[in-house]
Every structure is written in C-alpha cells, then in structure tokens.
Q: What sequence folds into this?
C-alpha cells in the first residue's frame, strides 16, 4: 500500500511539473495584442515628435531674418519708409536659397510688411511653408505671429508647429 501511495504522489508531482513548463497559447496571444496596441499608439506619436523637431529648424534659421527685419524697422521707422524689405539683400541677408538646412529649403523676406517665409525642404517629414509676420510694433519692439495654411495644403500642419508659435487671430 505504501508503494502505491508513493507511486501516486510521484505521478501527481510529475503532472504538476508538466503543467508549469511554459506559457499557454492564450497568454502569448494576449502579450502580442498588448504589444500591437502599444505600437499603434507609439508610432504616430513618434512621427509627430520627429516632424515637430524638424520644424523647429525653421524657427532657428528664421531667427537671423527676424533680427534683420527688426533692425530694418528700427532704422527706418516702418517697413515702407526708406525702401521696403522686398528682398533678403535689402535687409542684409543672404539670398533665400542660401539660408537653408537639412529640413529647410529657403528663408525669404518677400513682401512689404516684413513677413518672413520659411519653406520646408522635400527631405522633411512635413512639407509646406511657415510665414512669420511682424505684429505689434509699439514700444520699439516687434512681436511675431506665425501662420501656416494647413487647410490650403501649402502650409505645415498646425500640430507640427512649436508651442510658442503664436497664431494670428
């Protein structure tokens, strides 16, 4: 009788050992589904982050143009007095195509209001143009508004613009 009980205990322990050998198919399927859901959320978020980082290069390159247009305004009292900033050379900048970067094709001062147009390069994750226009000029300083014609298909999507980009009302 002892031998039979010992044999049954041995068989029960063997059965338990086999039962705890690995993961079941359902457990593995649940893990794969969770990883899929995380990837579905993470990939678009990373794509937007990457495009926003590339767009920030536009604002870095536009900084010198903003300084040049501001200086022109301070020296002349307005954008129309003593000449209009209708080209980069008038405000002391290099040609538009020479002000470029890895993700920016050109930076140009193109109209009589002192607006700066930054055109994104074809290598960027987002395409289009960003326009920085001088806003309030009271008190000797200039505030800058940025616009991007997302609806017309010619501008950078608004979600890719930096948070400090003040949209015109």
A:
């Amino acid at each position: 009788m002892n031998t039979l009980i010992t044999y049954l205990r041995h068989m029960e322990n063997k059965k338990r050992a086999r039962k705890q050998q690995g993961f079941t198919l359902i457990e593995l399927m649940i893990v794969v589904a969770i990883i899929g859901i995380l990837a579905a959320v993470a990939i678009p978020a990373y794509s937007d982050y990457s495009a926003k980082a590339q767009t920030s290069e536009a604002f870095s390159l536009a900084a010198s143009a903003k300084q040049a247009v501001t200086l022109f305004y301070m020296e002349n009292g307005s954008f129309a007095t003593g000449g209009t900033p209708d080209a980069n050379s008038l405000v002391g900048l290099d040609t538009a195509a020479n002000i470029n970067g890895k993700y920016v094709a050109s930076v140009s001062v193109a109209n009589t209001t002192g607006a700066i147009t930054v055109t994104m390069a074809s290598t960027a994750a987002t395409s289009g143009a960003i326009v920085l226009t001088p806003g309030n000029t009271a008190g000797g300083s200039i505030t800058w508004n940025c616009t991007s014609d997302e609806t017309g298909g010619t501008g950078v999507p608004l979600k890719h613009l930096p948070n400090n980009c003040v949209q015109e009302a």
